[in-house]
User: Which sequence fits this backbone?
């Protein structure tokens, strides 16, 4: 519902091909076994859940955690990956937006979500200590640079998406639709959101250096 509202999609519309499949495992060992046998994925320890897109289908595999809030946030994060796979096209957003949007939705979807209190301090520390937002925006899945040292990409990606939604929600939606429509994301950022990478990186830096 949060994603539908963000993109102005009629409430209740099913974006999935039939249904998204949620596989809930009782423990990490079963989770990793299903990853290996079902999805040919050798998952490192510490990963709680993953979303897999198989053609038009969406599968979320996750294992139960005694930390209810962390479990809920992870389930929401991975399900948003599935929603975005089905939204408009299967084209993928750049890593910072792909992960940042999932973190943003997981943060705003329920009151006790731990996302903001975990991601925001890390992002603020990185930005205020001279870290480059534009450099994080250039990290990507393809060359293995994502998520950067100490997984900083997730925190900064969350902060970037929060700022885009807060200040220009309509333009953010246009940018998403342009990228999902096949436009290069950097070109779309300039043409549909109004910024180059470096200019938006500086805008985000200035904003979060001031923000408490």
Assistant:
């Amino acid at each position: 519902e949060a994603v539908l509202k963000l993109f102005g999609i009629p409430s209740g519309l099913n974006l999935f091909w039939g249904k998204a499949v949620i596989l809930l495992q009782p423990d990490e060992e079963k989770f990793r076994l299903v990853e290996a046998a079902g999805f040919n994925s050798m998952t490192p320890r510490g990963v709680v859940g993953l979303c897999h897109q198989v053609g038009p289908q969406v599968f979320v595999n996750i294992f139960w955690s005694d930390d209810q809030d962390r479990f809920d946030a992870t389930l929401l994060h991975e399900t948003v990956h599935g929603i975005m796979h089905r939204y408009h096209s299967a084209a993928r957003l750049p890593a910072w937006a792909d992960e940042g949007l999932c973190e943003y939705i997981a943060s705003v979807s329920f009151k006790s979500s731990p996302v903001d209190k975990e991601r925001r301090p890390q992002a603020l520390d990185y930005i205020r200590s001279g870290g480059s937002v534009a450099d994080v925006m250039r990290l990507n899945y393809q060359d293995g640079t994502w998520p950067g040292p100490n997984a900083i990409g997730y925190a900064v990606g969350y902060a970037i998406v929060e700022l885009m939604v807060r200040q220009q929600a309509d333009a953010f939606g246009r940018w998403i639709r342009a990228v999902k429509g096949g436009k290069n994301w950097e070109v779309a950022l300039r043409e549909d959101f109004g910024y180059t990478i470096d200019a938006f990186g500086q805008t985000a830096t200035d904003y979060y250096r001031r923000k408490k």
Residues 152-180 form the longest helix (29 residues).
